[in-house]
Design a protein that fits this description.
Blueprint (H helix, E strand, L loop, with lengths): L2 H7 L2 H10 L10 E2 L5 E4 L2 E5 L12 H14 L8 H5 L2 H13 L4 E5 L2 H12 L5 E5 L4 H12 L3 E5 L4 H18 L3 E6 L11 H6 L7 E5 L14 H5 L7 E5 L9 E5 L2 H10 L1 H4 L6 H16 L1 H20 L12 E6 L3 H15 L2 E2 L1 E3 L8 E6 L7 H19 L15
Parallel strand pairs: 3-12, 5-6, 5-7, 7-8, 8-9
Antiparallel strand pairs: 1-2, 2-3, 4-10, 9-10, 11-14, 13-14
Helix pairs in contact: 3-13, 5-13, 6-7, 14-16
Length: 424
């Protein structure tokens, strides 16, 4: 078979439903236009936007925009040229690492180009074929792909049920036995905040298991960094177990509204090992200087303005309490990530009409998740409140969702006219 023919005949687990919905540029790959913020334009219409992980509203903060422009004007996007090991290091890169490490309560940190490739490469770097990985079943795709790299080196791994400590302990026993036989160690991987459900990882219970088992703990806290804990240092700070996290990872793509990531540890020798052995950093150009200097400004603002986090949580509470009081199922989220679960019996046509009504008539834009990500018959709308939203935005959206739910219940979207594109 021609390899292209194979790809054309099977669009993949996400591409296939997208093709069924004829959703390119609508449900998937939408083009949101205008200044980043709560109100943007979609398909020529203004929409109230709940689909950006811009938790603290830094994307268009005036000091951030000025820092971005000044750094780009001063350095351009080329500087520094080369990988950091060869010719791309700078004082600014190393100062930023120190600031990040201090903020999350660690002794040292390594600045990374990207979040996704960063944690993949870290997992591959830390574990050799003798080591065994134990990971949460709902871990992000970047963690899964890191484990695939481990598997490619003939490494072993076990998956424990999501946030299930009984399942984790069962698999720790298996992993410990296997690691001892192979002469390796055990790495447990989980998340601070799970990005789809909004659930917080049970880091306290995992840390307690260190009293019984010998393992190291890697936490991906992409959604917790900047939002969770007294100072915003993440879920480890919130639960009082930051010291028990052996490797703390976060991306800048959420609260920092930027590009890049970092990994931090209380063991400087491990950070130095990563600097010399993480292939995604050794063989890639250093993070450009504008991202470094503007990232430092973002961290400075994050630390100096706890009111941004206070406003975020005010909006989160208003949205989540409002949804619950109106009878919506939002799962057991404990973070700003707010899933809204709805039931659909009408399949693809009903979902299509529902989302068009929400976006085009009600002017509310949020991410939608359907089968195979969630079970058949279920729809998940994913809301991301930010510090830039207002309580009026929240109230408007609550009313829109109530209207939407009533229409679903009354089968309004299951109309006979299959040509109808918008439900009035």
């Amino acid at each position: 078979m021609d390899i292209f023919e194979k790809l054309q005949n099977n669009s993949g687990p996400i591409g296939t439903p997208a093709k069924m919905l004829n959703s390119h540029h609508y449900f998937s790959f939408p083009m949101l236009e205008g200044e980043l913020g709560p109100r943007m334009r979609f398909m020529g219409r203004e929409v109230l936007n709940w689909s950006l992980n811009n938790y603290l509203g830094l994307a268009n903060h005036p000091e951030v925009r000025k820092a971005d422009a000044d750094a780009a004007a001063k350095w351009g996007l080329a500087y520094p040229m080369g990988a950091r090991m060869m010719s791309g290091n700078s004082t600014q890169h190393e100062e930023f690492e120190k600031e990040l490490a201090e903020f999350v309560g660690k002794k040292d940190a390594f600045l990374l180009n990207y979040g996704y490739q960063g944690i993949m490469s870290a997992i591959e770097c830390i574990c050799d074929y003798r080591d065994v990985i134990v990971y949460d079943a709902e871990s992000h795709a970047c963690i899964i792909d890191g484990i695939r790299l481990h598997k490619a080196k003939l490494g072993e791994y076990y998956k424990f049920n999501h946030n299930d400590m009984e399942s984790l302990e069962k698999n720790l026993k298996r992993a410990t036995k296997l690691a001892n036989e192979k002469g390796g160690g055990v790495l447990v991987i989980t998340e601070g905040v799970f990005g789809m459900s909004g659930k917080v990882g049970d880091l306290k219970a995992i840390a307690d298991l260190k009293q019984k088992y010998d393992f190291r703990l890697l936490v991906d806290d992409a959604h917790g960094f900047g939002t969770m804990g007294e100072t915003g240092a993440g879920v480890g700070e919130l639960l009082g177990v930051q010291k028990e996290i052996d490797l703390y990872f976060s991306t800048f793509a959420k609260s920092m509204a930027a590009i890049g990531a970092f990994i931090a540890s209380d063991n400087p020798e491990i950070i130095m090992y990563l600097k010399y052995n993480m292939r995604s950093q050794t063989y890639a150009k250093a993070l450009p200087m504008p991202y470094v200097e503007a990232g430092r400004k973002r961290l400075e603002i994050l630390k100096a303005n706890p009111d941004l986090r206070t406003k975020l949580w005010e909006n989160v509470a208003a949205m989540q309490n409002g949804l619950r009081s109106r009878g919506f199922n939002i799962g057991s989220t404990e973070s700003p990530v707010t899933p809204v679960f709805l039931h659909s019996e009408g399949g693809v046509p009903e979902v299509t009409r529902m989302v068009r009504d929400l976006r085009e008539n009600m002017g509310v834009f949020c991410s939608i998740v359907v089968y195979p990500v969630v079970p058949k018959g279920q729809i998940m709308l994913r809301i991301i409140p930010t510090a830039a939203h207002t309580l009026e935005d929240v109230e408007y959206t609550l009313n829109a969702f109530t209207t939407l739910a009533d229409k679903l219940k009354n089968r309004v979207y299951q109309i006979d006219d299959v040509q109808a594109e918008v439900v009035e």
